[in-house]
Amino acid sequence: AHLDRIAAVDGAVGAFLHVDAEGVLAQARAVDDRRAAGEELGPLAGVPVAHKDVFTTRDMPTTAGSKILEGWRPPYDATITRRLREAGLVILGKTNMDEFAMGSSTENSAYRTTHNPWDLARIPGGSSGGSSAAVAAYEAPLATGTDTGGSIRQPAAVTGIVGAKPTYGGSSRYGIVAFASSLDTPGPFARNVLDAALLQDAFSGHDPMDSTSIDRPKPPVVEAARRADVAGLRVGVVKEFAGDGYQPGVSARFAEAVELLESLGAKVVEVSCPNFAHALPAYYLIAPSEASSNLARFDAMRYGLRVGDDGARSAEEVMALTRAAGFGPEVKRRIMLGTYALSSGYYDAYYGKAQQVRTLITRDFERAFEQVDVLVSPTTPTTAFPIGERADDPMAMYLADLCTIPSNLTGNAALSVPCGLADEDGLPVGLQIMAPVLADDRVYRVGAAVE
Ligand code: GLN
C-alpha cells in the first residue's frame, strides 16, 4: 500500500531519492519468513520506514544529498540501519535532504526539491525534509532523521507531525555521514507520539562503535508515551522565545498549548534562559568548524565523484576540481566559515568564544531544570515558508532554528508535537518540549498528553 502511495504522490511531493519496489517486497517477505521460523520480533516488525539518505545502507545508495557522493554504495550499514533491520522494519527507500544536512528547507539538496504536502508551493522543512514530507503525505508511517540544529523538530513542526531529537549520545552516530559530530543526533518522525517512541526505542541505546554513545539504560519512552499525563508536572515557558519575529498564529497556538497543559494539571511558570539569545551565533561557528574538518574526507580519492583525473593533473588539482564541482554553495559557505573560525589567530576569538557560550547555555538549562521538569516553546518562529523565499538569504534561513539549537549545543532531549494550525495561513504549528539529558521519557510523556 505504501509503495502504491509513493507511486501516486511522490512525483508531486518529491520526498524520496531512492525507492526499489522489488527490494522493499523482498525485505517484507524476509520478515514474514523470520516470523514463520519462530523468531520473536519487536512491535514494529513489518512496518515500513522511510530512511534519511544520510544513513549508510549496504543495499542502497547513500548520497547525503550531495553530488560528491552520487552513485556511492556504502560497504556497511549504519548502526541505526542495522537496528531497523533487526527489529524487522522494512526500509521503503532513502529520503531527500539538504546537502550534508546543511539547511532548513531541503532546497540545498543537489538532487530535487521536496514539497510540503500541506501546500506544494512551500518547503517541508529541513534538513530532513524528505522524511517529514513522506510521513505527512502518508507515503510512510515512520521515518528517520538527524537533528544537528533542528533538522528533525523543524521539519516535523512545519508538516504537522511528531519529531524527536533524543539525548545526544543516546542514539548512535556510527554510519551517519558526519556534519557536526558534537551535535549530530539521529531521531524518529511519526504521525503520533507513541509511534515516535516505538521507533526511537527500536534504534536507540548504547553502541560501542560510537565513542560518544552513552552506556546507560535507555529512557523508558514507550511507557512515557502511553502514560501521557502531566498532572503535577512543572512546565517552564522560555521567556526569551517570544515576541517580535514570531508569526502571530504561531504565538496564538503556543499560548493555547500552554493553557491546555495548565488545564491538564501542570504547573506553568515563566523561566528565563538569557544566554539562549547567543545560541544561534555560537552554533554557526561550531557547526561549520566541525563540518570543515569532517568534509575534508571528500578528497576525490576515497568516495564518489572524481573530476579531471586525466593522468596529467596532480592529486591536489583533481581534489580541487572535484570539490569545486561536487559541493553546492551552502556547503562551500560552511567550509569557508569553519576554516576561517579555526585558523590560527582567530581560533580563540571565534571557536573558543563559541565553546564558552555553549557552557553558558548549559548552565541556563541546569538552572531552569532546578525549577521545572520540562521547558516549552514554539518549535520554529513561523509556519512553512514558500519555496524560494529564503533560498538566497542564509540569515533568514538560519533563523528557522532559533528555538531548536540550544538543545543541540547541550545534548538535551527535545520533541516537537503538532499544536494546531495558524489562523493566517492554515498551516501546522509545532510545540517544542525540552527535558534534561537522558530524560527523553519526559518529552514523550508531555507530548502524548497534549497531542
Ligand atoms: N538548519 C541548521 C543548519 O543548517 C540545522 C541543520 C541540521 O540540524 N542538520 O545547520
TrEMBL record:
Pfam families attached to this UniProt entry: Amidase
Catalysed reaction equations from the record: L-glutamyl-tRNA(Gln) + L-glutamine + ATP + H2O = L-glutaminyl-tRNA(Gln) + L-glutamate + ADP + phosphate + H(+)
Enzyme Commission number: 6.3.5.7
InterPro entries: Amidase, Amidase_CS, Amidase_dom, AS_sf, GatA
Source organism, top-level taxon: Bacteria
Catalytic residues in the record: 52 (charge relay system), 127 (charge relay system), 151 (acyl-ester intermediate)
Family annotation (HAMAP family): GatA
Entry-linked PANTHER family: GLUTAMYL-TRNA(GLN) AMIDOTRANSFERASE SUBUNIT A, TRANSAMIDASE
Family: Belongs to the amidase family. GatA subfamily.
Assembly description: Heterotrimer of A, B and C subunits.
Record's protein name: Glutamyl-tRNA(Gln) amidotransferase subunit A
Lineage of the organism: Bacteria, Bacillati, Actinomycetota, Actinomycetes, Streptosporangiales
